[in-house]
Structures are given as structure tokens and as C-alpha cells.
Amino acid sequence: MDLALRYAGVPREERARRVPELLERVGLHNVAHRRIWQISGGQQQRVAIARALASDNPLLLLDEPFAALDALTRERLQEDLRLVSERTGRTSVFVTHSVEEAVFLGSRVVVLTKRPGRIALDLDIPLPRTGLEPDELRALPEYAALRATVSQAVRAAAD
């Protein structure tokens, strides 16, 4: 984590402050002293997410970042990623096989077909990005309708 911040040009004093904050953000404050090979695969995935969040790049590329996580941690990190995007204005390109995740995190969802990969669906997600708690957002009828649309496209693209 420190290395990612060092490459981003963050001064040593600020790195010492930000590393614990980033580890706390991904729920790993208690493993800061361990080496990467001493933690589980899910914890390693969270470290990778924290490293990605450490830099101030305007674009965040994520390929199945929550796949190895338990459901509660996945949901918490999805909410955190949504807040980070909202606060920083970062654009995220997020690859996932989860319809729920795509609709929750996306402002636009693109579904690809099997080989050769072609666009089966390109859908704007016009859900509110602010003012709602995650559970309120997930309870909206529009949310359910968008999930159904994306789910149908995924099933059709798999055929």
C-alpha cells in the first residue's frame, strides 16, 4: 500500500496517515503488520482495492474486484466504491458477472455476448446517485426493472 502511495508522489508523512485509513476503508485495519502471503485470498483482494483507491487517478479499472469476498464485505465495498465515485468524480470501468452489482454501481451497463464479444445491451442506469441509502436504492421499483432488463440481456447473450 505504501508503495502505491509512494509511486503516486504522496509524501512520507501523508503515506503514514493514509495507509491505515485505506486499510480501515476495506476492513483490514487488523492485518497491517502481515505480509501479503499471510492473508486470505479475499483479504488480498481487499488490499488490491485499497491500492487502487490510494492513487488519485481519474479512471479506476476494476475486473471482478469483489469476486473472492463474502456477501457482507462485498456489499460494504460496493457502497464504498459508489461513495468514492460520487465524492471524487472518478470514472470507474467495472467488469462483473453480477447483474445486481452492475445495476447498483453502474451509471451505464454494457452486456457482451459470447465470442466474439459483441454488445448485446448498452443501457443507461438513470437511478439517483445521491440522497438515498443503499437499501432505499435497492428497494426502488425502477431498480428492480433495470435488474430484470439486464438479467434478460445476460441470459440472451449467453445463448
Automatic annotation (TrEMBL):
The keyword ATP-binding applies. The keyword ATP-binding applies. It holds the Pfam family ABC_tran. Signal peptide: none annotated. GO terms for molecular function: ATP binding. Residues 14-67 form the ABC transporter domain. It comes from the Bacteria. Keywords: ATP-binding, Nucleotide-binding, Transport. PANTHER family: ALIPHATIC SULFONATES IMPORT ATP-BINDING PROTEIN SSUB (PTHR42788:SF13), TAURINE IMPORT ATP-BINDING PROTEIN-RELATED (PTHR42788). This is ABC transporter ATP-binding protein. The lineage of its organism: Bacteria, Bacillati, Actinomycetota, Actinomycetes, Streptosporangiales.
